[in-house]
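Bug: token stream looks shifted between consecutive jobs. Job 1:
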Amino acid sequence: MNPLTTVPESSRETPTVLIRGTGLLGASIGLGLRAAGHTVWLSDISATAQRIAEDIGAGTAWNGEDEAEIVIVAAPPESTAEELAAALAHHRQAVVLDIASVKAGVLTDLIRLAEAPDFGLDRADLGRYVGTHPMAGRERSGPVAARGELFTSMPWVICPAEHPHAGRLSTDAAVAWAEEIARRLGASIHRMTPSFHDESVALISHLPQVAASLVASRLQDAPSDALELSGNGLRDVTRIAASDPNLWVQILSGNSAAVLEILYGLREDVQRLIGTLEDPSAAGSQADLAQLIAEGNAGVARIPGKHGAPPRAFSVLTVIVDDKPGQIAAVLNDVAITGVNVEDMRMDHSAGHQVGMVELSVLPGRRDELAQALNEMGWKVVQS
């Protein structure tokens, strides 16, 4: 089979896949594709990472010579373009994909490399390349954290390559195989141009990371007594601040233009807030503060809800549980008995007390019914 010229027609077609890079995403792709029936080869500059990926069943070591039918480059953003060019040059009939979190810069660098004499490539070879970005991850990194189901129901962006002067580069067959790989891993497919992708992730991914890191940095010298008052609000805002600094240096550098445009707007809002708070009793200050919060309300209301459906307001009730094994399972078991579906759940702990607080989000019309049933079952319920 030549994936370059053959559009996938059935799930029985299982081209050989080489994964270059065996971190969390690369190893997870290997696990998922092997489960789907593909032969998967692995390659990584880190011998340790590659051996772990092999040991968990993500694939077998590539011998460095055989040509794959599909190559997936799962390298850090700063080395992705060179890895892509090398893959296109070695695997002369393969569809070559990458999963880097920035797309326009990688494509620009790849075109530059392809037009250089060193790799022996030409513009036609770029027809075998498709940029992709699976929007999935975990707090843990490395192949030891890999899961074959990591991409299930998660967005996977497909960005066909385009030349600034010559237009579309990726062939229809190459794009179809990129989408098929994402589909076989259970992801939901979204097609975008590289530039629109970078603008989108700057807003929904890169800005939150910057904001979380900036807020968390304020905590470095905070008094311990103050931090003991922390609740879910602070934890929610700072959760992603624990991300890998080395990776984010590459991501923010690679998407700096798009991130800057958003930061300029954020700076205006911060300066406006500072000006208001410097004299909160001045005429119009209270209205300005209210407007700022209301604008945030409007933004939150636009975030898609459960399963990507349109935003929908849920009612929340909190169940107080003892801090001991089995309590959360017991609550959920009793909720199941009532027949009320839990749309979302979160857990917090009470400062200074050996109790936990399980927040259950349900449809507004079922909240009172669930609260009454749980109270009758002996649970302490607080409605908010």
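Job 2, same session, no restart:
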Amino acid sequence: MTPTDLTVQIERGLADLRDLVALPSVSAQGRMLPETAAAVRALLEAEGFTVQEVPGDVAPVLIAEAGEGPATLLIYNHYDVQPEDPLALWDSPPFELTERDGRLYGRGASDDKGEFASRLAAVRAVKARHGGRLPLRVRWLIEGEEEVGSPSLDRVVREQAEHLQADGCWWEFGAIDPEGRPVLSLGLKGVMCLELRCRVAASDLHSSLGAVVDNPLYRLARAVTSLRDDGGRLTVAGVLDDVRATSDADRAAVAQIPGDGQAMRDTYGVTRPLATGAGYHDRLGLMPVVNVNGWGGGYQGAGSKTVLPAEGFVKLDFRLVPDQNPARVLDLLRAHLDAQGLADVEVVELEAHQRPARTDAAHPFVQACVAAAREAHGTEPVVQPSSGASGPMYPFQAALGVPCVAAGIGNAGGRVHAPNENILRDHFARGVAFGVALLERLAAPPA
């Protein structure tokens, strides 16, 4: 295939992306999910995939298969996106793919419609090289619930295990760093989203009664400050006991990761980093963390209102590492709050939790991905034992025993989940090239 032929497939993939971004498939709000699933199904069927639609709790799950050859590659993507709010901070319409200075902006441009479109373009390119034939088996699972915690995925993976067996799984996301190096992630943190709630009265009170009635926001503040120290280390008793010991291979991989997060700090204007230098990547990928996502209760308007609120809430997420179990962490949190004299602070689990997962860096599939990245990008890839992000990788490893590698087209300034989400046009093209290199490498007869 000539560079011109590959360019044709890249441009076709960008046209697919434009059409997909136009569909506001926001799973948190139940918007356009069946319609987007139908659009994805049509794209796959046009390339010869047989597609099975499995009902999900929130949105359809698509399982597709095409090709035949010496290896089987499983690809995981999702077609749902985050809400576009706050709309006023977008510089162009969120559901209209817009190009400015080599960047393509739109909700889902990166996460995850851009990843899907680039991979489909790679499949087309490989088929074109082989006279319309796909020289390996490609199985594809594409869900519409990832942005709300993938509540159906564990069930679907276990029920459909026979149709999902593979030599390796190409995970749904990835990045190219500011120096142009592809970043491959071999694992994901788990995530557990919670709400702490506290009520002290049936209705709001005059603030003078704060002398004799406790304040729910104060109690929530006590709860939150008891969860970690000033350096970000979790202080819930027992919560670190199950953290898997870091292997020599993991330490070696972390040590070779370049940078210390400066690009991220510059992009977001960070003023209070918890880790820099050598500790940055260790903390990001290998240690658990608790985050305060939001706080509510009491008067929120302009000026003052002397009120003692009746109730309040705090939203949290825990990012977990192997071998932490979200259910055990939840039990430990409840026991911790009780021990702090905060038995009246209610703990409510939000969405479906996800368990952490990590692939052995020595696995042959990992090495195939590393070689394909080196070939496509012309530089040595960065291999992370784990991303700092979360996703539903655990069922693929627990139920299928499939090694997973995340490799994709994201960038440090991609603003995923935020206004002005974007990808670089050049990164999309390089993502297609990586897909071609990986598929061709897996399709080659064993030596």
